[in-house]
Amino acid sequence: MGAALGQGGRGRWLRSGPALPRNALTGRNYSGINILLLWGEVIAKGHPSQSWLTFRQARQAGGAVRKGEHGCMVVYADRFIPETEKARAQDSGEAARAIPFLKRFTVFNVAQCEGLENKVLPDPAPLPERETIPIAEEVIAASGVDFRMGGDKAYYMPSLDIVQVPPQLAFFEQINFYRTCLHELTHATGHVSRLARDLSHGFGTAGYAREELIALSGQSAPCLTHT
């Protein structure tokens, strides 16, 4: 990772579905850490869709998850106030204390299912071929990094402080062009002249994983404001 930080070959980052993963039955977009979990699953498994269902929802849609398929974990976090706590707060006049909880669910990509009926929502249409996102363009311009387009790989090279990404038309969906740009520009924030993170960790190390998580966070937030 010290020589160049990047997202590797074409197949790992040119394929994706709609801008955000969503539930194929309800149409509701997933949020928070679930976006990163499901994006990662699409990249790792090469799924052609960003639409997901639970095992039960696949049955509700008239189909089923294919035998042998493995799902992806998503989480739901919230708070609740037990009845006993409500009673205590009412008796004491104090504010009731909410208890945080976290639930885990397993979801499956619609490509892992069969026999689904029309009640499953279709994937959103791809973004227009040359759509631009002004706020992302402003971030790129304001970064101060030598930003180049060309080739078939995306990477940040700390030694030269340059970011290179393939041309915009090389991407199946234009939002993925901006995700890639922001991913590499987030790596660039670690340059010695900026936040001076250690960018020398090799692939497979904890330091490499930490830096990739930073870059994923950097690419996600601006894209969420757009969608």
From TrEMBL:
Residues covered by the N-terminal domain: 13-108
Domain of life: Bacteria
MF GO annotations: single-stranded DNA binding
Domain Polyvalent protein metallopeptidase span(s) in chain numbering: 136-215
Protein name per UniProt: DUF1738 domain-containing protein
